[in-house]
Amino acid sequence: MAFKPANNIQDLQYFGEFGGVNPSISDSSTYTFLSAKTMFDTFEGNADGCYLYSRHSSPSNLYLGDALAAMEGTETANVSASGMGAITPVLLQLCGSGDHIVSSRTIYGGTYAFLKNFTPRFNIATSFVDITKLDAVEAAITEKTKVLYCESVSNPLLEVADIKDLAALAKKHNLKLVVDNTFSPLSISPAILGADVVIHSLTKFINGSSDTVGGVVCGTQEFINDLRNVNSGASMLLGATMDSLRASSVLKNLRTLHIRIQQHSKNALYLAERFEQLGLKTVYPGLASHPSHTLFKSMMNAAYGFGGMLTLDVGSAEKANALMELMQNKNLGYLAVSLGFYKTLFSAPGSSTSSEIPEDEQKEMGLSEGLIRFSIGLDDDIERSFQTMKLCMISLDILK
């Protein structure tokens, strides 16, 4: 039977304290106990269903974690205050001094900066490779390697990771495969394909309203328990805890994710096909011209499409900036970082979300100055938006 992530979310049943259709929000930082022994047992992790302090856990956070674990097909999950608040504890939990990580070369700039500039302070080294070349990935593995790290669909170049083969490679070398699935929720289910840990920035598509920052780690009960351990858990000790009010808000938005992702994907495919027909250098996994189009199709949950992210290369930073400013002026979207909003968002990643990557490395990986990253919105009339975008490009001599 095919894995159906939206069904898993839909099948969860939560009631509020007074029978509300939404679970009650645990708006408390600390909790009372009827006995001192119960407090001790809870602190030691031996009292199921009891809460001690909201940095450890809260009912609201557990509701959201359960729903996200159901979506990804993992045993459980731990939510955090940001996407980076999910990524960094995972890597620090899995690696210690002297260990090594093999990472995709094209990843979110904040993750790249953490691996390139921050983890070396702890004597943790990272090799950055073209994740689409399995022989290069395996060649980078050493006896000190502990983690393979990638994004299902990479930021910003939209390279697609072969999660099944990477999982097999990780198993062969006794490594953990950690996958950031932020760009492709519902469309791809990395844990079902063999990933050990799945991460999301909840800030993006999952929340969908650009009003909340959050993250999640989905994995085994054993690993999540390790992250939460009061003595040695990286999530617990680094303290990037999600607020209960925010967790409740994300949970409500999660219930419409399947509808939103379908519309994001529908609109993105429409624009990508039209842009390519105009002769524009367009990258989108749903296009047959994408080098990993067939791979994506083999991994995807077909009902949700190829996602809402696409890129255009208009040749120069000047043209990219002029086009983005004009599109914003025409109310086609916003010149802004992030993604997953109801309006289309566009940015030049070389000078924004990937600016942490040195220019020479940007060029080596194919990240040009004229590249625009689009997070396509939920427009009801995407043809109208396309026609206006086309006029913008004509006026700037991007289209002749």
How would you characterize the overall build of this protein?
The chain has 400 residues and is an alpha/beta fold. It has two domains: 5-254, Aspartate Aminotransferase, domain 2 (3-Layer(aba) Sandwich); 257-395, Aspartate Aminotransferase, domain 1 (Alpha-Beta Complex). Helices cover 38% and strands 14% of the residues. It contains 15 helices and twelve strands. It has helices spanning 5-10, 36-43, 59-72, 84-94, 109-118, 134-140, 163-172, 221-228, 234-238, 244-254, 257-277, 293-299, 317-329, 359-365, 382-395, and strands at residues 76-80, 100-104, 125-129, 145-151, 176-180, 197-201, 215-219, 281-283, 309-313, 334-335, 345-347, 371-375. The strands form two sheets. It has a seven-stranded mixed sheet, with helices on both faces. Strand 2, helix 5 and strand 3 (125-129) form a beta-alpha-beta unit. Helix 3 (59-72) runs parallel beside helix 10. The longest helix has 21 residues, at 257-277.
Helices and strands in order:
Elements: H1 5-10, H2 36-43, H3 59-72, E1 76-80, H4 84-94, E2 100-104, H5 109-118, E3 125-129, H6 134-140, E4 145-151, H7 163-172, E5 176-180, E6 197-201, E7 215-219, H8 221-228, H9 234-238, H10 244-254, H11 257-277, E8 281-283, H12 293-299, E9 309-313, H13 317-329, E10 334-335, E11 345-347, H14 359-365, E12 371-375, H15 382-395
Parallel strand pairs: 2-3, 2-4, 4-5, 5-6, 10-11
Antiparallel strand pairs: 1-7, 6-7, 8-9, 9-12, 11-12
Helix pairs in contact: 3-10
